[in-house]
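Budget justification aside, the reviewers requested a transparent look at the raw inputs and outputs of the sequence design task funded under Objective 1. We therefore reproduce one unedited record. The lines immediately below are the C-alpha cells for a 283-residue chain.
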C-alpha cells in the first residue's frame, strides 16, 4: 500500500466523516462534525490512499495545550500505518502552533499506537450511561448567554484552559440543555449537554468542590429536562464524588478510555471540580 496523503478536512468531507462515525458507533452527529470544523478549520485532517479516503483525525488547541480526538481508520485499512500518519500530522500541527503538552482519551484498542508515539497514561476517563428521570433540582437556573463570562471564569479554574469559544457555541446551539448554580452572586457550577446520535451527551459538567451540593442538582436538572432519554457521561476516575452520583442513579459503567499525554505533560486541570468531561476529543 502506498503512503497515505494527509490533507486538511473541509465541509465537503462531512459525509465521509459520518460514514466513519457510523462504523465505530461513538454517537457523534453531523452537527458535531460541523462544530469541529468551526472550532478548528485547519486542525481536522483526512487521510487518502490512491483515490480513496481512508481515515480522519481532529486536533484542538488551547494555548500551549492541545487535544487530539476522533482518530478513525477504515477497518480494512487498519494496521497499515494510516492511523500513525494521521496522528503524526495532528501532533505536528499542534506543536507548530505552540502546544507543549498534547492530551487525548484513548480507546483501549488504540492505546498501543499512542504509546509507540510517546503518549503516557495519566488516568482513566470513565464512561457511564443510563436513562434520565425527573429529580429534585431546586436552586438550579437556566444558563443564559449573559452568564457565559462568569461560567467561563469558573471553567478556567478547573479545566485550566480557556474554552470560552466552545462554551458559547454549545449554549447557543442547545440553550435548553444548559444549567448553572449560583451562590453569593457567583456561579459555582454549571452543566451543558448536546444531543448525540442515540443519546444525550453530558459535558462539560463543572462544580466548585466547596459547593459540592450543587453537583448532583445540576445533573438532576438536566435529567428532568431529558426525562426518558439515554444519558452518556464521561468523567475522570479521581472525581469520586462524580462517580458516586452517577452510580447512585443506577448508571451503568461502559468501557473506559485512558487519558494520555505527550510532551511536557503540563498539569492544568483540577479533576475534583470536573464532574463531566466536555467531550472525549476536546477535553
Amino acid at each position: 500500500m502506498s503512503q497515505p496523503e494527509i490533507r486538511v478536512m473541509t465541509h465537503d468531507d462531512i459525509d465521509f466523516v459520518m460514514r466513519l462515525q457510523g462504523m465505530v458507533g461513538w454517537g457523534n452527529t453531523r452537527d458535531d462534525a460541523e462544530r469541529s470544523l468551526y472550532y478548528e478549520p485547519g486542525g481536522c485532517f483526512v487521510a487518502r490512499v490512491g483515490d480513496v479516503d481512508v481515515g480522519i483525525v481532529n486536533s484542538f488547541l488551547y494555548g500551549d495545550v492541545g487535544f487530539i480526538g476522533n482518530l478513525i481508520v477504515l477497518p480494512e485499512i487498519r494496521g497499515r500505518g494510516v492511523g500513525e500518519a494521521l496522528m503524526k500530522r495532528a501532533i505536528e500541527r499542534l506543536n507548530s502552533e505552540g502546544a507543549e503538552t498534547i492530551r487525548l482519551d484513548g480507546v483501549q484498542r488504540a492505546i498501543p499506537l499512542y504509546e509507540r508515539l510517546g503518549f503516557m497514561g495519566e488516568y482513566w476517563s470513565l464512561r457511564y450511561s443510563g436513562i434520565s428521570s425527573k429529580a429534585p433540582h431546586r436552586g438550579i437556573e437556566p444558563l443564559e448567554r449573559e452568564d457565559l463570562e462568569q461560567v467561563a471564569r469558573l471553567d478556567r479554574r478547573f479545566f485550566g484552559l480557556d474554552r470560552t469559544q466552545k462554551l458559547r457555541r454549545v449554549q447557543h446551539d442547545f440553550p435548553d440543555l444548559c444549567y448553572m448554580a449560583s451562590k453569593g452572586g457567583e456561579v459555582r457550577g454549571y452543566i451543558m449537554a448536546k444531543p448525540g446520535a442515540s443519546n444525550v451527551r453530558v459535558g462539560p459538567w463543572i462544580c466548585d468542590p466547596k459547593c459540592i451540593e450543587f453537583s448532583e442538582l445540576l445533573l438532576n436538572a438536566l435529567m428532568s429536562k431529558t426525562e426518558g432519554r439515554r444519558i452518556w457521561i464521561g468523567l475522570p476516575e479521581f472525581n469520586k464524588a462524580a462517580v458516586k452520583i452517577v452510580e447512585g442513579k443506577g448508571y451503568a459503567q461502559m468501557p473506559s478510555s485512558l487519558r494520555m499525554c505527550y510532551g511536557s505533560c503540563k498539569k492544568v486541570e483540577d479533576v475534583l471540580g470536573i464532574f463531566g468531561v466536555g467531550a472525549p476529543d476536546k477535553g
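Residues 128-276 form a domain with the Aminopeptidase fold (CATH 3.40.630.30). Residues 24 and 163 are 27 Å apart (CA to CA). Computational costs for records of this kind are itemized in the attached budget.
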